[in-house]
Every structure is written in structure tokens, then in C-alpha cells.
Design goal:
CATH architecture of the largest domain: Sandwich
Helix content: 10-25%
Number of strands: 21
Order of helices and strands: HHHHHEEEEEEEEEEEEEEEEEEEEE
Distance between the termini: 91 Å
Largest sheet: 6 strands, mixed
Length: 348
């Protein structure tokens, strides 16, 4: 209903006086009908600069939060949007890029920004570009890699798994003959074995995996996986990868939440020899301990990190001054460091 229709209806009405309330209702109905061809939904993501790991929004609902919300709604990200661009977001961006044939870097550069804008922004004026006119919010359901019939059904696409937790790998059809359960990165690069030489049908089409534990052929021993994007492949024991293999969707592995429950002792000499023990969780080979500021030049020397990430042993560098300090325990994944009080003792 438009203004011409309202005017004609009023002119032809047999009633000498039209109630103002009726006119107002008709006018509002006309407005409603006029805008029902516009669809509102997810936020238009029209980024004017690149963003990547470590980027944090300076205000509520900023660009990182909008990006994470879109990735979550599109099943690329399982985590709750926080406004901080961490490892889980990197993995989700990589999966989005893989799906859309963009170089899988995890960095939101010009090509990724343009694609996000194309998928989520529609001009409010036909023929105009989103950059020059207000954008309309539209619902978007991005396509995700399809899983063929006869596949690994768990973990699912976009799922986030923490190192050290347990998850059940499930598949819907038993492979023919003996098989290996392998892990691979984007591009098809094999990482290692979750399990080897499994007999068909003996596991009930499932396997309990301690997330992060893999057998690497190069070291011929079990190692702890690094955080990143992966998928699972079931392939014949004596065969290479094949299109007939059962595979999962791409999922994200993240380090355990970094925490420190105890430091022993709480003071030590700056002699690069006295051991200081941190007890907690989430310690990885990339973890670091700094004095007085995160990523400062005063960095402790790591002597030992347990394979389960619960123990970290370091020594205090000789150039750290005596007296009270704040130490920063950084997990190497650009998340917030854990801070602790520590005292450097006077040498005897």
C-alpha cells in the first residue's frame, strides 16, 4: 500500500470525515507492507581493515565479535563469541576460507573481508554498493564441507576440543578390513596416528580418544598435538589415503585453559640454576614465563614441561634484579597471561 492508494481511498470514501486513527493505522500498514521485502537477520560484516590473531574489540559488539557470531551461526565456530581473536577463531576462519577456496591462513585480509561483505551485506538501494549506502542485515547460512555417505560423524564440523579432554570418535559404516585412525591438517597433510591396525567391527564403530595424543611416525612415540584445525580419516592399514576413506568435518583443537594453582618456591635466586615449579594446567611447549611485563626481555628459562600440561619448571635468569616481581605465564597462544607474585632473593 502506498501514498497514492491511501489518497485515492480517502478521496473516494463516502464518509465526509475519516477518523485520524484509521488514517494512521492505514499509513503504518502501508509502511509495513513496503518494507516486508527486506530481510533482517545476521549483522552485515563490512570490515574496513584486516584483523587477525590477537585482535581485540575496543567496544561491545565490535568487528571481532561480529565475525565470531557469523562463524558460529554458520557452524564454523563452536565457541561463544568474546570479541577476542584467539586460536579457536583462527581455526574457524581457516575452515571458512577452505570452504570458499581462499588461501587458508586464518587471517582476515582483503579477499576474506570482501567475501564476508558479499555474503552478509545487501544494498538498501538497488544498484548501489554497500560501501556507499546503508547496508541491510540479512540471514546467511554459509555452506560447509559436505560429509559423504559412510563417514566419521563425530567430531563434527566446527566442534572445539580441548587438549587433554576425552572425546568419542564415531563413524556410521565399518571400514572394509583393518584400518588406521589418522589425523590430518588442511591440505591433506598427515599429522599422525590416533590408533593403528584396528579390526573392522571390533570397536562398535567408535573409538575413545584422549584429545591431543597422537603417534608420530617420525618420532615413533606418542606426542601432544599442537592447537589447530584438523580432521579425522579412517584408511586401510596397508593403503594410502583414498576418496573412499571415511573422514570427519574440520574441527578445532585448542590448548587446555591455562591456570596456575601453585608456585614452589615463591622466591629464588637469580642464578639460572635454582628450579621453580609451577603446578596447574594448559602448559604447552610454547608456554613462557616473563618478569615484570608480558613478553618482556626478562624471560625465564624453561627446564621441563610435562606431557599432560600440568607441570612447568623454570629457572630465574641472572639479570633479573633482586626484590619483589610480578611474573607473567604466557601460553604462547595470544590469550591473557596468568600473573603471580614472586621474589628474587639476595645472593648469599
Amino acid at each position: 500500500m502506498n501514498k497514492l492508494f491511501v489518497h485515492t481511498w480517502l478521496s473516494n470514501s463516502s464518509r465526509p470525515i475519516v477518523d485520524k486513527t484509521v488514517v494512521a493505522i492505514i499509513f503504518l500498514v502501508g509502511i509495513f507492507i513496503g518494507v516486508t521485502d527486506r530481510v533482517y537477520g545476521a549483522t552485515c560484516i563490512n570490515l574496513n581493515s584486516d584483523i587477525g590473531v590477537g585482535t581485540a574489540d575496543g567496544f561491545s559488539g565490535g568487528p571481532v565479535y561480529q565475525l565470531q557470531s557469523y562463524l558460529r551461526d554458520s557452524s564454523f565456530l563452536a565457541a561463544t563469541p568474546t570479541g577476542y581473536f584467539g586460536p579457536a577463531t583462527v581455526s574457524a576462519v581457516k575452515a571458512f576460507q577452505l570452504t570458499n577456496n581462499i588461501s587458508s591462513t586464518g587471517y582476515v585480509g582483503p579477499m576474506t573481508r570482501a567475501l564476508l561483505s558479499k555474503k552478509t551485506c545487501v544494498s538498501s538501494v538497488q544498484g548501489a554498493t554497500p560501501a556507499s549506502t546503508p547496508t541491510i542485515k540479512v540471514p546467511v547460512t554459509a555452506s560447509v564441507p559436505s560429509i559423504p555417505t559412510g563417514s566419521v560423524t563425530s567430531p563434527t564440523t566446527g566442534q572445539v576440543l580441548s587438549i587433554g579432554s576425552s572425546t568419542v570418535i564415531r563413524w556410521d559404516k565399518a571400514p572394509a578390513g583393518n584400518y588406521n585412525i589418522t589425523l590430518e591438517q588442511p591440505g591433506g597433510m598427515g599429522v599422525g596416528f590416533i590408533a593403528q591396525d584396528q579390526s573392522s567391527g571390533t570397536n562398535g564403530n567408535q573409538y575413545l580418544w584422549k584429545v591431543g595424543k597422537i603417534l608420530t611416525p617420525s618420532a615413533n612415540s606418542y606426542q601432544t598435538l599442537s592447537a589447530g584445525t584438523y580432521r579425522i580419516r579412517l584408511q586401510g592399514t596397508n593403503a594410502g589415503s583414498s576418496p573412499a576413506d571415511l573422514t570427519s568435518g574440520w574441527f578445532t583443537v585448542v590448548a587446555s585453559q591455562l591456570s596456575v594453582s601453585r608456585i614452589m618456591p615463591a622466591s629464588a635466586f637469580a642464578d639460572d640454576a635454582t628450579s621453580v615449579v609451577l603446578l596447574g594446567s594448559g602448559f604447552t611447549p610454547s608456554a613462557s614465563v616473563y618478569f615484570d611485563a608480558n613478553n618482556s626481555s626478562l624471560r625465564a628459562t624453561n627446564q621441563y614441561i610435562s606431557s599432560d600440561g600440568t607441570v612447568l619448571v623454570f629457572t630465574v635468569p641472572a639479570n633479573v634484579p633482586t626484590g619483589p616481581h610480578t611474573i607473567y605465564v604466557n601460553d604462547g597462544q595470544n590469550s591473557q597471561p596468568v600473573t603471580l607474585s614472586f621474589t628474587v632473593s639476595v645472593s648469599q
